[in-house]
# Entry
Amino acid sequence: MNQKKKQIIDAAQRLFIKKGFSSTSIQDILDEAEIAKGTFYNYFSSKNECLMAILELISEEIIQERIHLAYGKERDDESVFAAQMAVRFNIDKKHNLMALFSTVRGSEDKDLQAFLDKQYVMELHWVANRLKEIYGQEIDSLSYDYAIIFLGIVQQAAYVVKRTKPSIDQTEAMIQFSLNRISSLIETQSGVGNAFFHEEDFYKFLNVEEPSLDVLKQQIVETLNEINEARFPEKEYYAFIIEELQREKPRMVLLESIFLTLSKEVEGTINEGKIRKVSSLAWRLIEREKRKRLK
Amino acid sequence: MNQKKKQIIDAAQRLFIKKGFSSTSIQDILDEAEIAKGTFYNYFSSKNECLMAILELISEEIIQERIHLAYGKERDDESVFAAQMAVRFNIDKKHNLMALFSTVRGSEDKDLQAFLDKQYVMELHWVANRLKEIYGQEIDSLSYDYAIIFLGIVQQAAYVVKRTKPSIDQTEAMIQFSLNRISSLIETQSGVGNAFFHEEDFYKFLNVEEPSLDVLKQQIVETLNEINEARFPEKEYYAFIIEELQREKPRMVLLESIFLTLSKEVEGTINEGKIRKVSSLAWRLIEREKRKRLK
DNA sequence: AATAAAACTAGACTAACAGTATAAAGAAAT
DNA sequence: ATTTCTTTATACTGTTAGTCTAGTTTTATT
# Structure
């Protein structure tokens, strides 16, 4: 990411945390970032867009952290899932984001609304798939029902906990509470009744086709090419990844491992952002491949 | 309620529905209500306060409607509860309030936040008590857990339904879905494990003591006295209520019936608002008495 | 090194807005 | 009849988002 843009985002984030979103004026951001107004509007067309950029970064951070947590562990390990769920709350806490998110939840800005809906559905997909991995493929048709119920419990519990016991960190306990309830639900009525929610519903409302595997691959290669320059020591990684993706059956295990190393390698460098992006693309690819092979 | 105040609230509500909360300026409200700026600030110190007044009215409307639905029915009738839950969604729909509520959910205004928290906790209390009535007093210690889970499911489902199938009215189906899940949860694990949430937690965070029965009675009498003027035909009702409340053991069944008739009687008159308020106070009183007698 | 293109700065400017203040007209109460 | 409260109309202050322009600095290209 561009240095100025990063500078703006950092400043904005500091201020949003400190003063809240709506009490932070654009002028405040200009002062904090020590840039001119024109520069700001060169990168963002509004405060909302700046906010979206921040939220996107955080979202990538969450995905990244979840990958690390899962690495090397069994996919049906419930405690891994619990830890992965906790990531969102911890990162929110770290960035004091709760307030930010809710600021934005009720915005009347169409773009922002669409952006949040999209993030929400991505989370929903992820939860549904993880539940399937943990409780078995037989819950398949009900996995979205369960995902919605689970997210409902977690969010509601978080809301209440935050207001009743803001001092103590109850994140773990709260997630465990929600997990107990959802697993109790799943165990007693798996396969019973019809699903109320279906995967297809979400594609429709997101207005996106699930991208094909080939499209995903191409996006990864493209992004890699953008950063693939001789002077970087990670050059071999990039070459390998691109090569591997061309294969008939890319060895996903290898790729997963490479991305993990790579994302540590570039931590703090200029490429961090792009690698994070490419890595989250790759993760989706890997997920999809695994699912395909299960069927 | 004062005529000018009502005029302002009506205008504001129309505009909030039409244009959204944050896109409605105070000037817009002045134009719509055909009043001067000074008048507005005479009644509300900000747009937020005006909004709170609107939300409060709606909240009373919901309580009122729920009372009507329950009247004469068994307290453990699940379908009554389903209908009562639907009230909130239908009224929200009627006033196009979904947007309004979420607009406000993330506000950084302290007062507004406190106001919403309070409304939320009142809803939570109500749900917890209704669940106890429906599924038996033995779920007692867990009733807040269940209430939170239930509200979580309902809200999440509503959020998703609104985005996936905004055209069809799925309110009933969605509530039934949530009810099925919560009753399945309750039946399979009632009495098992410790409660995660407790009634006391909410008193603490609301910074309110649960008002004593006497305080409730007093509030009712006071409000009644404010409207108890000779020229109103409902004079006998008021006198009777006040008298009945003085008794050692007020006959709650009588009072409930009187309030029901009374609230119909004053519909559309100048006293409607006050009666609604007094009626919701009385309802809490009646609830409390019934609970006391069960123990 | 010269030049062209871009990114950036500083600040002026407009328009919308919240909220305060005031003076005068009108209504209600005593 | 007089006082008190409410309402109006309008002016004023101060803040904000966003546009625009003219000039400067940085970066890439030849």
Notes: Chain A has three domains: 1-44, 48-206, 213-294. Residues 4, 35-39, 42 of chain A lie near DNA strand C (CB under 10 Å from a C1'). The two ends of chain A are 39 Å apart (CA to CA). Chain A touches chain B through 47 residues (CB under 8 Å).
